[in-house]
Design brief:
Strand order of the largest sheet of chain B: 6-7-8-3-9
Low-confidence stretches of chain B: none
Mean pLDDT of chain A: 87
Largest sheet of chain A: 11 strands, mixed
CATH superfamily of chain B: P-loop containing nucleotide triphosphate hydrolases
Shape of chain B: globular
Helix content of chain B: 25-40%
Structural class of chain B: alpha/beta
Order of helices and strands of chain B: EEEHEEHEHHHHEHEEHH
Oligomer: heterodimer
Number of domains of chain B: 1
Distance between the termini of chain A: 28 Å
Helix content of chain A: 40-55%
Number of strands of chain B: 9
Order of helices and strands of chain A: HHEHEHEEHEEEEHEEEEHEEHEEHEHHHH
């Protein structure tokens, strides 16, 4: 048995070029499979950590997924807003430690504009309870100050002191401009890998101010209120889009959720972000599962290549098998010899694939972190990946039986004198 | 003691085909050097397959060293072959990815009996392989080369060493000299029978070339003992 395995290794080494190429293709396909799995895991983790430390997200009554989409990811638009009075009621609840009202609806070159309070920069957390950090500048203080997310700033090439105008509505083209009331960039946030990176933050009052002379989504003809007079109006918001709520004690979360959902003055919805993010991931997760399936197929193609190479070599090896039979090898030894070869190559290919992946992810991690905000954790292998590799090895074991069986049949038919 | 004893052996490749071998009797005694004359088509390869235990006769008895092959499992026949028979083929006798020494030692890898007999003289396995290779005129510097670099004659002598190591009772040589020129044929034959005598092995030399039969104790002509052939001619 031990000798047979040594013999299989020596024989494989003798055909190292073809088998080496096959081994490489398996290594690459395994690296791809594990890479996709790893990015998938990290993306899901990153996604689940888009918001952290917030106990409840509150908005007008809609579906939890939709509320998360607009309140956290700033995708789509709210069908209804919450009255300011309602927000004040919520914020005054004894269980509430802090609350961040947010107001959406405007954009800047396709990047969503978020109206909020300076509390946002203090209480909004992401990832593993990481606070927002400024690479430059500070939170907004003046009425027409804006704070940019990292990607918005980088993509549009803004620096502190630049003046920007907001557009009414979401989207990029054909929108009415709030050109009369430009904003000044006073702060740029550090990259977070969350939707914050794509957001332009201004104060709630600023959102009111730019809409003073607007009604029903359009400028009121003939009325113009210049920016310098806007501050003289009452800029207390009438409505907000959603509220992020932090509680003094997590134990109160279900009580608070019930309070919000049963709120009598207007129909509201409170969701636990973790639960809603999981639901949302079920929807967007289809794509990543498809990606995993494709990389699984790539591995299958690699294994097929391996089996084809071994089967093709079989005919040239009939003489060799006859010699082994003549010195006493049993047909099942021949079976083992050929099956071991496939398994041996897959094992080496899988190991090499893991090394390739570990090396390349260690090298690319800083690049991916800074460009995609995706944190690739340097790890060798996780339990899930081990499961995947188990499947790869299982399939290769089954596939390797094919050349083994072919050789078995061939050596039975050939006996000691192969007819070549 | 008879080394090979065949009685009323009948072999067909399939139930539909006509008989390939039909041998009423054949006996080879221990220590004999037999020249088995077999032109192509006389059932030579089939007989070797039967003697090696990879084929089973349909009828009759086939005993090897008093073991009834027909009564044994295929694994037991494989074992018997490994323990007691050294095979030597026409050409391409060696495994290309093994060294000369490893090719010789291959016989000992599949049979513990031959391993034990090889070291019974007090030599290690390697020493015993080297001793045999020396006897067969394979110089020491050739012994670590890849076998693909050896000449055909050298390859056949390495194969002979593999057949002889561990002193098997029977050495079966199937046209081992057909790829050699006349001069080397005789030299190889002399060397082989000398080493068989030293090892105390019975030699069964199969060939279609009758000129080589000189020096053998006995010649058996397969066409003469195989009734399947005479029937075919009669038909």
């Amino acid at each position: 048995m031990k000798y047979l395995l040594a013999l299989a290794a020596r024989s494989a080494w003798n055909r190292k070029l073809t088998l080496g190429l096959t081994l490489m293709s398996i290594a690459l396909s395994v690296a791809l499979l594990l890479g996709v799995e790893r990015v998938r895991q990290d993306a899901q983790e990153s996604f689940a950590q888009s918001v952290s430390g917030t106990d409840l997200v509150v908005g007008a009554r809609t579906s939890p997924v939709q509320l998360m989409l607009y309140a956290v990811f700033h995708i789509g638009e709210a069908t209804n807003n919450i009255h300011w009075k309602t927000y004040q009621d919520l914020a005054a609840q004894p269980a509430v430690a802090w609350s961040i009202p947010i107001s959406l609806g405007d954009s800047h070159h396709g990047f969503p504009v978020l109206g909020t309070t300076p509390d946002y920069f203090e209480h909004f957390h992401y990832g593993e309870a990481q606070p927002l950090a400024f690479t430059q500048g500070q939170p907004f203080a003046g009425l027409f100050d804006a704070v940019l997310g990292a990607e918005a700033a980088e993509h549009l090439g803004y620096k502190l002191g630049d003046r920007i105008t907001l557009s009414h509505g979401m989207g990029d083209i054909g929108l009415a401009e709030h050109a009369d009331k430009p904003f000044t960039v006073v702060g740029i946030l550090a990259r977070t890998g969350t939707p914050v990176d794509r957001t332009v933050h201004v104060s709630l009052e600023a959102i009111e101010a730019i809409h003073l002379d607007w009604q029903g989504g359009a400028k009121i003809p003939g009325i113009t209120i210049p920016a310098e007079y806007a501050g003289k109006f009452n800029l207390t918001p009438r409505e907000v889009t959603a509220v992020l709520v932090g509680l003094k004690s997590r134990a109160a979360v279900f009580r608070m959720q019930r309070y919000v959902n049963d709120y009598s003055m207007e129909p509201l919805l409170a969701v636990l972000p973790g639960v809603a993010l999981d639901q949302l991931w079920q929807v967007v997760g289809v794509a990543e599962r498809a990606l995993l399936a494709v990389s699984g197929m790539v591995v299958a193609v690699g294994l097929c290549g391996l089996i084809a190479v071994i089967l093709a070599s079989l005919n040239e090896r009939r003489r060799e098998l006859a010699i082994l039979r003549s010195v006493g090898a049993r047909p099942r030894d021949v079976f083992l010899l050929l099956s071991a070869e496939g398994l041996f190559i897959t094992l080496c290919g899988t190991l090499l694939g893991m090394i390739l992946l570990t090396a390349s992810s260690a090298m690319l991690a800083p690049f991916i972190q800074s460009h995609y905000g995706l944190l690739i954790e340097p790890k060798f292998i996780s339990a899930d990946e081990l499961g995947l590799l188990g499947i790869v090895m299982g399939v290769s074991l089954l596939a390797s039986l094919a050349p083994g069986y072919g050789a078995y049949r061939l050596s039975l038919a050939d006996g000691l004198t192969p007819r070549i | 003691m008879s080394v090979v004893k065949i009685e009323n052996l009948l072999f067909r490749w399939s139930a539909q085909s006509r008989a390939c071998l039909d041998i009423p009797a054949l006996e080879v005694r221990a220590g004999e050097h037999i020249f088995l004359y077999g032109p192509s088509g006389s059932g030579k390869s089939t007989l070797l397959g039967l003697l090696g235990g990879v084929l089973v006769p349909e009828q009759g008895t086939l005993a090897l060293l008093d073991h009834q092959l027909t009564a044994m499992s295929s694994a037991a026949r494989d074992r018997l072959r490994a323990d007691h028979i050294g095979f030597l083929f026409q050409q391409f006798n060696l495994i290309p990815y093994l060294s000369v020494l490893d090719n010789v030692l291959l016989s000992c890898r599949f049979s513990s009996r031959r391993r034990e007999r090889a070291i019974a003289s007090g030599n290690t396995l390697h020493e015993e392989a080297q001793r045999l290779l020396d006897h067969l005129d394979i110089a020491a510097e050739l012994q670590h080369r890849p076998v693909t670099q050896l000449s055909v004659g050298q390859q056949q002598r390495v194969a002979a060493a593999r057949a002889l190591i561990g002193r098997p009772e029977i050495v079966i040589a199937d046209e081992p000299t057909s790829a050699l020129d006349a001069e080397r044929q005789t030299a190889f034959l002399d060397l082989l029978s000398r080493e068989c005598i030293t090892a105390g092995a019975t030699l069964l030399f199969v060939s279609h070339d009758r000129r080589l039969s000189a020096g053998f104790d006995r010649e058996i002509a397969l066409p003469a003992i195989n009734r399947a052939l005479t029937e075919k001619e009669a038909a």
